[in-house]
Design brief:
The chain is α/β, with parallel strands linked by helices. It has a single domain, classed as Rossmann fold (3-Layer(aba) Sandwich), CATH 3.40.50.1820. The protein has ten helices and twelve strands. An eight-stranded mixed β-sheet has the order 4-5-8-6-9-10-11-12, sandwiched between helices. It is globular.
Length: 273
């Protein structure tokens, strides 16, 4: 306990930039491009189109567009804290089979995207991806569904508060970054709120003011982001909402635990909005 208090006091004295670096080291596990994984050129029969756009900081970001000519809807995927988009072709397949076009992109420092990830940076990258989908790919904001996976749930909710959109899908989401951080490192509760890094990725606050349809998918056996986080978010969301519990799924096996249920759930959600 004494050690925890000393550490907390140390962080109070030190610059918030130190706290930012600490958070970034704890949160992000980016994988750079692995050539063999990027050799795939189609998913579920749909061609992969490479897309390059820039972050507000001027860094080149990379994404994959899989366009379904039968749908006007686009699912913008904000992925979790590990890997890159080349590790999410299985997710792309399920989303495409749900009947929508899909745009996956990598944050700074992931895959083929330049730079280094940060909490502020990933939210800016998310807004840049959304704006690129509207301004360059030609999608209307009201036809874009925001998808957030784990850490990406914070990015998706951030975009949802800043841009008009069609709906929100959150998979294995947390209630807020501070809450989940304090669960993993209890001594962080001693760290003053004003000195915490920003943005806080407060999904509870974001959903409390969100009026569009919401779908939350969470594995009952999730040990990384406990199931009750999804339940709290569902409780505070607006009237147009749906919660899907996958009883045998954890955190990293949500896609392949029950693919038919996963696909049919999203398909039904898309058809209702």
């Amino acid at each position: 306990m004494e050690t925890a208090i000393l550490l907390a006091l140390l962080y109070i004295v030190l610059s918030p930039k130190i706290a930012q670096k600490f958070y970034n080291c704890m949160l992000f596990y980016p994988d750079k491009e692995q050539e063999d994984l990027y050799s795939v050129r189609s998913v579920a029969g749909f061609d992969i189109e490479d897309q390059i756009f820039k972050s507000p900081a001027g860094k080149e970001l990379h994404g994959w567009l899989m366009k379904n000519p039968q749908s006007d809807k686009l699912i913008l995927v904000n992925h979790g804290n590990a890997g890159n988009i080349s590790h999410r072709t299985w997710l792309a397949k399920l989303l495409i089979e749900s009947g929508s076009s899909v745009f996956l992109y990598d944050y700074q420092g992931y895959g083929r995207s330049a730079g280094n990830p940060s909490i502020l940076g990933i939210t800016q990258d998310g807004l840049a991806a959304f704006d690129f989908a509207v301004e360059k790919l030609g999608y209307k904001p009201e036809d874009i569904i925001l998808f957030g996976e784990s850490l990406g749930s914070g990015v998706a909710c951030h975009i949802a508060t800043a841009r008009p959109n069609r709906g929100l899908i959150l998979q294995s989401p947390f209630s807020s970054l501070r809450h989940i951080a304090c669960e993993k490192l209890p001594w962080l509760r001693l760290y003053p709120n004003p000195l915490m890094v920003t943005p806080d990725l407060d999904n509870l606050t974001a959903l409390s003011n969100y009026k569009q349809p919401v779908l939350i998918i969470h594995g009952k056996m999730d040990k990384t982001v406990p199931f009750y986080h999804g339940e709290r978010l569902f409780k505070i969301a607006g009237e147009n909402k749906k919660f899907i519990c996958l009883p045998t799924a954890g955190h990293n096996d949500v896609y392949d635990c029950d693919p038919p249920t996963y696909t049919e759930t999203i398909k039904a959600f898309l058809s209702d909005i």
